[in-house]
């Protein structure tokens, strides 16, 4: 079983999620369109699933669109049509929303730690924590399609975790983020969010809470996507 992961920056990868997949015997392959070569996987190679990562200052609503945006929307749409698992984090969630019939709204580049609360006890089949921190580092914002099931919302009651279909999930931020990933993003691009130093301190303070919340989140995600079929 191999999950294909599309990376949009050098700094952001699966982070803490790697350990959860490896522990279940699920392999993952990174694709790096920004680095040249074969940019994206073929749709027929995605039987086991697709993960779309964040994009730092790249967005999807017109101000600074990801160069491969149209191709990735088409790839995610193909997965949805065939009932294959898709996870989208940050920009990846925007791509998933567009593929599912939703949209994205313009928003400036932002770095924040959201306080997410679940909308019902059975969210993510009961595995979504009642409250947990979720770090975002992104431009623009996903607007899930009307048929999406909202699982968690942020302090402003905006969708933070949502589900479309049986096996696709969008997260406003990266649920397995590591502090070093954000530090690398800040170094990778000339454009950086305002006040990033204070938010780094905030992220550092909640890093253990992020790790703890990821355990039930990945349990629910793995069950819903079918990755429990893997040995281990």
Give a description of the structure:
This protein is an alpha/beta fold. Helix content is about 30%, strand content about 25%. A 9-stranded mixed sheet has the order 2-1-3-4-11-10-9-6-7. Helix 1 (about 15-20) links the parallel strand 1 and strand 2. Helix 2 (about 70-80) crosses helix 3. The longest helix is centred in the last third of the chain and has 30 residues, at about 195-225. The model has no long low-confidence stretch (mean pLDDT about 95).
Task: Using brief descriptors, characterize the structure shown.
single chain; alpha/beta; 232 residues; 9-stranded mixed β-sheet; Rossmann fold
Q: Kindly give the count of domains.
A: 1
Strand pairing plus helix content: what structural class?
A: alpha/beta
Oligomer: single chain
End-to-end distance, in Å?
12 Å
Q: On the 0-100 scale, what is the average pLDDT? A: 95
Number of strands: 11
CATH homologous superfamily heading: Class I glutamine amidotransferase (GATase) domain
Radius of gyration, taken over Cα atoms and rounded to an integer in Å: 16 Å
Shape: globular
- Going by CATH, the architecture would be 3-Layer(aba) Sandwich
């Amino acid at each position: 079983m191999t999950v294909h992961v599309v990376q949009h920056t050098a700094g952001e990868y699966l982070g803490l999620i790697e350990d959860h997949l490896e522990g279940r015997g699920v392999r993952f392959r990174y694709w790096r369109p920004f680095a040249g070569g074969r940019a994206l996987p073929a749709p027929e190679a995605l039987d086991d699933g697709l993960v779309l990562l964040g994009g730092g200052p790249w967005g999807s609503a017109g101000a600074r669109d990801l160069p491969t945006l149209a191709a990735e929307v088409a790839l995610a749409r193909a997965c949805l049509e065939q009932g294959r698992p898709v996870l989208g984090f940050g920009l990846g969630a925007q791509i998933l929303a567009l593929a599912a019939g939703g949209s994205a709204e313009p928003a400036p580049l932002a770095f924040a730690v959201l306080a997410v609360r679940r909308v019902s006890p059975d969210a993510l089949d009961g595995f979504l924590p009642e409250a947990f921190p979720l770090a975002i580092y992104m431009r623009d914002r996903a607007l899930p399609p009307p048929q999406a099931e909202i699982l968690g919302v942020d302090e402003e009651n905006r969708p933070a975790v949502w589900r479309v279909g049986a096996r696709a999930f969008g997260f406003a931020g990266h649920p397995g983020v590591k502090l070093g990933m954000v530090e690398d993003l800040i170094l990778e691009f000339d454009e950086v969010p305002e006040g990033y130093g204070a938010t780094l301190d905030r992220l550092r303070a909640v890093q253990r809470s992020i790790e703890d919340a990821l355990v039930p989140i990945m349990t629910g995600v793995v069950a819903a996507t079918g990755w429990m079929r893997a040995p281990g």
